[in-house]
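tool_call predict_complex ligand=magnesium ion
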Amino acid sequence: MAGLTDIAWILDLDGVIWLADEPISGSARAIQLLDAAEHQVLFVTNFSALTRRQAELKLEGCGIEAEGRVVTSAMAAASLVKPGEQVIVCGGEGINEAVKERGATPLDPLQNSVPVRSIDAVIVGFHREFSFDRLAASAHALHNGARLISTNSDPTYPTPHGLLPGNGSLTAAVAVAGKVEPIVAGKPHAPIANLVLERLGLERGTPGNIVVGDLPATDGLLAAELDFDFGLVLSGVTSADQVDTCDPTPNVVAPDLEQMVEAALSSA
Ligand SMILES: [Mg+2]
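tool_result ok
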């Protein structure tokens, strides 16, 4: 039987730890409880714009020890390029950093001086500086044989002012203009699942591990890809009256992370 310390908690950020920029009540205490019980904690997000340190600092600002415990879709996207490759980054700083850490060269689509045939890949991630010229430069590289990698395919994301275009919208524009299909790296797809397993030293289907998130279509399907349990929290985009129709069906549902962790530890 697996011991308590063998349990890994793979935690989504937005809707679980914070909502937009507001910490969700009890999330810091939940992590303290998991740390005290010596469970493994890994934060896994589809948000690709933040660098590793920016993501850690945002968590630390919520009172959560985060160093070395963050996996982003930017890191998953960079895992699909090889050391030495030339990569157009149509996205934020988090992708530039991840591409460099991979030993490849990130290129700005607007300031690229590399011959277009030497470009191996284009990575698209969420950024607000997306423009016609960035789209044109990225598409030109794709017409000349570069691979298209997308950090995540979320079509929109929620804000207090309604839905805004997400990276799926930016990726769709680049894919149509470039006449190629993207490889999507983030949740719920295999590249980020493989990175999570590598970081945790686990294999698919190891019992007792759980993915916690607020969105069945990304967090629930990541759990399915990993063959781990899915814990749905109602502190984000999914409300209590939607639980019965969730696909995939969660193994456990709680109002928030703190209550999910308390219930799990008290039943262990
Ligand atoms: Mg979320």
